[in-house]
Amino acid sequence: MIKNIGVFCASGNQINHQYFDEAAVLGDWIGKTGRTLVYGGANIGLMEETAQHVKKHEGKIIGIITYKICTLGKKSSLPDQQIVVNDLNERKQKMIDLADIFIALPGGFGTLDEIFTVIASAQLEYHQKHVIFCNTNGFYNNLLNQIEIFYKQRFASEKYLNNYTVAKNISECITIIENIESKQ
Known about the structure:
This protein has a 7-stranded parallel sheet, with helices on both faces. Strand 3, helix 3 (about 65-70) and strand 4 (about 80-85) form a beta-alpha-beta unit. The chain is α/β, with parallel strands linked by helices. The chain is globular, with a radius of gyration of 15 Å. The longest helix is centred in the N-terminal third of the chain and has 16 residues, at about 15-30. Helix 1 packs parallel to helix 2 (about 45-55). The N and C termini lie close together (about 10 Å). Helix content is about 45%, strand content about 20%. The chain has a single domain (about 5-180), classed as Rossmann fold. The protein has helices at about 15-30, 45-55, 65-70, 90-100, 110-125, 140-150, 170-180, and strands spanning about 5-10, 35-40, 60-65, 80-85, 100-105, 130-135, 165. The protein has 7 helices and 7 strands, in the order E-H-E-H-E-H-E-H-E-H-E-H-E-H.
């Protein structure tokens, strides 16, 4: 079973509610299936929404948060285990160490940084973790088009395709994980 689900996502509250609904479905699934959420540990945005729904179903939560974010008063009270690290690079590495797979909900620059770190480091065989882009409402379409340009113009090898999958919504993300598990 894929136990520890790493989630990269928005830490802002001013986004379309549709994205919060998807985060809630993901949190419900993690909690109901006895999995563990591994995430950024903040008390805002899709991070907190996902964590609230995991906790509602008595799922386990590991928050990995930077000291700086804690000093800003944005530390969630929901994690069962809260790991405070020095900076974002240390946070990404700790998440890679602890998660079995990653789901990238819609997010901003921090989310993109996390996604590309996981994909690039998997390509270099530092780990074998996979990223699933949750492309709700076509959120990642333009980014995925740019990635296609990387391949077409030979800035990236198509081997990178082995390190990520695109799902149209959170239900499809869950199906992908369940299909991976059925083959294990």
